[in-house]
Amino acid sequence: MTDVDVEVIVIGAGPAGSTAALFLARSGIDVLLVDRHQFPRSKVCGDALIPDAIDMLKNIGLYDSVYKEGFSLSQFRIIAPNGDSILLNGSFITIKRILFDNLLCNAAISAGAKSAWNYSFENCIYENSKYKVEFHDNLNNKHYITSKYLIVATGANPLPLKNLGLLKYLRPTAIGIRRYVKAANTFEQELIFSYEKFLLPGYAWIFPLGNGTYNVGCGLFLHRNNNRINLHDLYNRFVTESPIARQVLSTAEEQSFLEGAPLWTGFMGSLVGNGSILVAGEALGLTYPTTGEGIGKCMKSGELVAKAIIAHRDEGYCRPASDLYQNLLDKEIKSKYLPYIISQKWLKYPFVPNMVVKQANKNESIRKLLEGILKEEVEPSRILSLWGLIKVMLRIT
């Protein structure tokens, strides 16, 4: 791969990187998609797609493929710390990331993107109006690629961003852990989302993938006081103490190791970019704090970073591409995060989810608000704010 020259290098072939490569390739731009892993590869995630990700798939023409490979559900159960629960309606798909990410990157390759696996980014320098990017292969041999643009979609790995001077926060804001199990089909039509008291404002989940397979995991938001918490212990506590987890998993067979991964949430990842180096996806911290959903947002950032590059070329390179990209992010994504950041702070108090679930079971308007939040049509602060909680308590919506 030495001495390759392309117009755009995309580092990281997850949802953001592959979506960016897909849009660029469809626009006739010479793009190279590089990843440090061999695809297909697994990725720690809840494996659930909610309406915004489903809408993105429809926009890029991949919905049918994902629908065929995935498992469709129409119900989402929220369990409060006191054990009360509410069943919400919606449209969801679960699919293992090893399948989902592979479908996305293959779509980009089919559209004309080039690919290179097992190459790790090291650094880059700017010379002769191009970026000279250094990669190492699995044998630690050096390879150099030149490009006009560099898209960094490397997830929560801080090293590439640190090497490029774009890292804002070295420490992740959250961490997730999950395991695949095979169990009876007891709750195979429900996504189960449990606010366990010992995880707040985090949560646990049991997501069915079809044929008796479940993704079981926990997500924990990090702060100064929980640096030493062992997430493995919290996972084991969930699967042994939670009544619904015991019911689903009593005869379960483990199908994978327990695996974890860090996250940046609440738009608290890296800088947006510098010049024609642009950051997309989870590296920006695009996972929502309250819900933990990020796939749709990462895909959207891939679309926006591609649009920024296309606009930069069309405008004759007048303004920095990073400024164009920043404007698109501010307009279409960034403003949506504050209500989720505010809402997450209320979820650390067990009485909040307890009261919301209790009142939603009694009041159809509150239930509809929760369904709207799940579909991301309603801001969570409509409920998870001081005034919102007062109205919920009084059943006023």
Would you mind describing this structure in some detail?
With 397 residues, the chain is α/β, with parallel strands linked by helices. It has 3 domains: 4-45 and 99-169 and 265-337, FAD/NAD(P)-binding domain (3-Layer(bba) Sandwich), CATH 3.50.50.60; 72-93 and 172-263, D-Amino Acid Oxidase, subunit A, domain 2 (D-Amino Acid Oxidase, Chain A, domain 2, 2-Layer Sandwich), CATH 3.30.9; 339-393, no CATH class. The chain is 35% helix and 26% strand. The strands form 3 sheets. Strands 4, 5, 6, 12, 13, 14, 15, 16 and 17 form a 9-stranded mixed beta sheet that branches. The chain has a 6-stranded mixed beta sheet with strand order 7-3-2-11-19-18, covered by helices on one side. A hairpin with a 2-residue loop joins strand 8 and strand 9 (130-136). The chain is globular and about 65 Å long.
Bulk shape: globular
Assigned CATH superfamily of the largest domain: FAD/NAD(P)-binding domain
Predict the CATH topology of the largest domain.
FAD/NAD(P)-binding domain
Annotation field: number of helices: 13
Q: Mean pLDDT, as a whole number?
A: 93
Q: What separation lies between the terminal Cα atoms?
A: 60 Å
CATH architecture of the largest domain: 3-Layer(bba) Sandwich
